[in-house]
Amino acid sequence: MGSAPVRAGGTDPVGDRLSRTQRRGTGVGPGQSLITSGTAYPSRWAMADTSEGAVTASVAEVDVLHVEDDPAFAEVAKQFLERCDEALAVTTVTDPATALDRLDEGTFDCVLCDYVMPELTGIELLEDVRDAFPDIPFILFTGKGSESVASDAFSAGATDYFEKPDDASEYELLAERIATVVEKHHTEWRLARSEERYRRLIETAPVPIVVHRGDEILFANEAAAEFLSAEDPGELVGTDPLDYLATDDREVVRERVGKLLADETAVDSLVEEYVDVDGNSKHARVAGGAVEYGGDRAVQVMLRDVTERRAYERELERYRQLVGAMGDGIYALDAEGCFEMVNERMTALTGYGRDELLGQYAGHVMTDEGLATVESAIQSLVDGAAGSVTVEVMARNADGAEVPRELNLTLQSTADDERFAGTVGVVRDITERRAREQELRAQNERLEAFAEIVGHDLRNPLGVVSGHAELARERAADGASGEELIPQLEAIETAVGRMTSLTEDLLTLAEQGETVGDRRPVAVDEAVREVWSTLDTDGATLAVADPGCVRADPTRFQQLLANLLENAVEHGSTSSGPEVDDAVEHGPEDELTVSVVGTEDGFAVTDDGSGIPSDERDRVFERGHSTAASTGFGLAIVDAVAEAHGWTATAGESESGGARFHIHTDG
């Protein structure tokens, strides 16, 4: 079950000699490896993963070819060895002439060979074995040992030398020696394979890699030759690596290399300028560290060609001053989405300094939703859907505030127009524009409401006026006296009064959509009493209990109070039921009390009237909504004034069961 020795000049047949045990059920055929990395281990070695993730091997069975002309001794040796170590499987050959054939036919890990045999000696067989199988462990196992024989054996390439035991206990030592040489052989084989894989990886790596010892290049891969414009890597080997540096301070670089050779300190990634064999200037980002190469300490350097990027950076620098003074924010992102250029306006818009932005990921100054929008826009640019894209996003400033921004994006240009190099963007603050758009939408909503009211609410009283005027005209034509026409005239007067109220409320509501004027501290109790004195309170009583002070536009605040107090007087004594029922709700001895009280976050206007039905409270601030014979705009005006101040108005029930309107002035 071991691997066949490798004949000199042949290929490693390890992968072709997987044991039947391992192949069974795996679907692995000759020439295939059980290890997905492509590393072919002898089939007798059990695979195990170390904590570092590297694959190690442990011997599952060691196949030993024992060449011994004495069959009796060979059988004794087989029994003792397999008893001492269960991993050993000994196959005996009594004719040394057939040993090479057995090695060809079998998969052996080690040869244990007698020295004195009839046809040829163990040394002679060793020489034949080494010609065909230069690497297989070979132990000369003899009963006629001497220093001369041992010397000849090692000179011929023996792996070890062991005298035949005088007692059984020495077989344990022999078994250990066999296991040791096999383990050593496999370790060396595995190391050679690892080094070969590493070399192939380095040679075919797409990035330039150079190994040198300070004054001489020892190795260069194809990518390094291409970077330095050499015909092949061999043109670079043997030359001084510092000859390709376009710097006058070569001694500093040489000193840095000396430190690398002295210890294992790696070189931080840095950009250096090089001159290739044709004299062209190139730039590369360099990282290096100390390695063992050919048994000696050396320096391995990896280079990333940034020549095009440096050229672009120089071009970008020429435009930096041009965009620095522009009124819009301008930035450039690299392919990773990090800022590589920002102008002064960009720093003002974000609240970050230039040094804080450069190298920072763009998502740092955007909300998650804004970042997703930008990524989608960039993808459309990459897909060629458009040459530039304009999007609106919410940005996040240094103070954490989220603000609206308009971004106009385009791709950075490259020499081949195929490689994505990043984006260039223009940022504009659209806070004021958003406010104007919002105000325009509000105005449109008000216009729609006005159109609805004009088309419906004003048409009804106009119809009343028209109808009663026609009746009055007909009755006058029939000779009716002036006193007889009074009912029609009173109906007309009532309708005109309602139209006047509607018109005044519409004008007031239209004004509330405008931005409030200068705010200043206003004592709520004084403002309430002043407004109350101007209202027809119909005998209602006012109670004021420390409502506090607010910062408000005094005129608009009085409009808010007037509508709240007027609503309390008008609706507090009127339920949503029929008017005949309302007439007895508050009699002469049951006066309405309107209270204005302070709260933790503002103030409230309450009454002890009939209250607001629970299913109506969410709708009382809607325009035109009313539970009584009013315009339905008073509370809509209250809501509009509160919103213009950044406040919130809510409706509820007072402790006495009446209405309660809470103005939240603290958010």
UniProtKB/TrEMBL annotation:
Residues 194-264, 315-385 form the PAS domain. Its EC number is 2.7.13.3. InterPro entries: CheY-like_superfamily (IPR011006), HATPase_C_sf (IPR036890), HATPase_dom (IPR003594), His_kinase_dom (IPR005467), HisK_dim/P_dom (IPR003661), HisK_dim/P_sf (IPR036097), PAC (IPR001610), PAS (IPR000014). Signal peptide: none annotated. The keyword DNA repair does not apply. SMART domains: HATPase_c, HisKA, PAC, PAS, REC. SUPFAM superfamilies: ATPase domain of HSP90 chaperone/DNA topoisomerase II/histidine kinase (SSF55874), CheY-like (SSF52172), Homodimeric domain of signal transducing histidine kinase (SSF47384), PYP-like sensor domain (PAS domain) (SSF55785). Residues 453-667 form the Histidine kinase domain. It catalyses: ATP + protein L-histidine = ADP + protein N-phospho-L-histidine. The keyword Ligase does not apply. GO terms for biological process: regulation of DNA-templated transcription. Keywords: Kinase, Phosphoprotein, Transferase, Two-component regulatory system. The modification 4-aspartylphosphate is found at residue 114. Residues 389-442 form the PAC domain. Pfam families: HATPase_c, HisKA, PAS, PAS_4, Response_reg. One of its GO terms (molecular function) is phosphorelay sensor kinase activity. Residues 1-34 are annotated as: Disordered. It is an enzyme of class 2 (transferase). Residues 63-179 form the Response regulatory domain. This is histidine kinase. It comes from Haloglomus irregulare.
